[in-house]
Amino acid sequence: MNSSSLKTPYFLIDEDKLIRNLEIAKRLKELSGVKLVLALKCFSTWGVFDIIKPYLDGTTSSGPYEVKLGHETFGGETHAYSVGYSEDDVREVADICDKLIFNSQSQLKAHRHLVEGKASLGLRLNPGVSYAGQDLADPARQFSRLGVHADKIDPEVFASLDGVMFHMNCENKDVDAFIGLLDAISAKFGTYLDSLEWVSLGGGVFFTWPGYDVEKLAAALKVFSERHGVQLYLEPGEAIITQTTDLVVTVVDIVENDMQTAIVDSATEAHRLDTLIYNEPASIEEASENGEHTYVIGSCSCLAGDQFCVANFDEPLSIGQRLHISDSAGYTMVKLNWFNGLRMPSIYCQRSSGEIQLLNEFDYQDFKRTLSQWPVR
Ligand SMILES: *Cc1c(COP(=O)(O)O)cnc(C)c1O
Where does the UniProt annotation locate this protein (predicted)? Predict the structure, then answer.
């Protein structure tokens, strides 16, 4: 299979690029003793888990289906944490997870008896400090519901807890800023941590970013785990799959209304939702910063503001031309939806051998089934 014969839109995951990230993860583990569990909410395309499994220790999940998927398709350690579990959720999840982490002391109190003897018991704490570019993604934002705040902790809960989880970073590329958060946690919660077996420091640490000082991060994690006598975990999502995947689209029309707009056979609202939610323009591989021809890369959905980006090109774009929207793996394939009844992108993996494998494709029946299966008669 040759990629130019594939029908757009499609995602193409590059095994070599994935392995490059995973090798960094491996080095971080070796240097620090940290364990790494993949955050499935960022990336759950289990067709490539065979590539990832040898490098990581397991998965971390939220909803019961995610937990089941991690247990079934990845194995290793399965962590489960949710902002709110129903009793049914807890019963289902406790049988298949290794660690169950509650978001509040009330959830812990209500459900702990269903977990004891089955899984290691954890509680999420909110450190009150964070590193996040946007308020929407800031776990320490005002009135945050994520984790127990320091002034609300009942110290007695630690007597019967195995571990705690802090998640306070989003795409943090600054190792010193992360170390600052670690120090704040040590100072604020240190006496509680000393009695625990494990501490998870959550996700959002961007240790695969070019130039990131992995050695410095590893040294700080090692000091922290030795100081408090705990096994440390990180829960990377984006760091594992960053810069590994293109969303490949075709230009289907070009219109001009004071600006040239190339309309492509995909939409951010349906296929790359975070472009819209976080208002962060995508990057196009074919673009060139100083190109003379400027286009809005517009989507084919009906939403007025739905566009991938504005980009410059050396040559004018033409109808039928393909564009590669880079870095399209994290928080995309897990959020695909059928808005406007658009064609759903297929999912492929380009293996190191050069072979392109089909992981998934969708058709009209898949769309129809999500809407109703049993008409009223
Ligand atoms: C979102 C999330 C992660 C993964 O975050 P990334 O930024 O993708 O690394 C890990 N842990 C928790 C609790 C999360 O909510």
Answer: Cytoplasm
